[in-house]
What does this fold into?
Amino acid sequence: MFAIFQTGGKQYKVQQGEKIYVEKLDLEVGAKIKFDEVIMVEGKIGTPFVKGASIEASVVKNGKQRKIHIIKFKSKKHHMKRQGHRQPYTQLVIDAINVK
It folds into this structure.
């Protein structure tokens, strides 16, 4: 059984026992979290969410993704700006998908 839920402005398709990376959540490692914004589960499509459905997950780790480099260049002016960015994330493991 799979479900689709949203968090951090993004949607994720998950199954029980799966590990996923989501936008950073302010939770410690080992903490439990419950997502109620389930968009689809067992073929049921919500309007906008499925009533009585939830997803339970545990935090595995918090970290940052690999660095990406941004370069802005203006031709003929000999002006260049370099910048780097590392997006913070939270890794979750899906414990249960509940449907009433």
Observations:
- The longest strand covers residues 54-64.
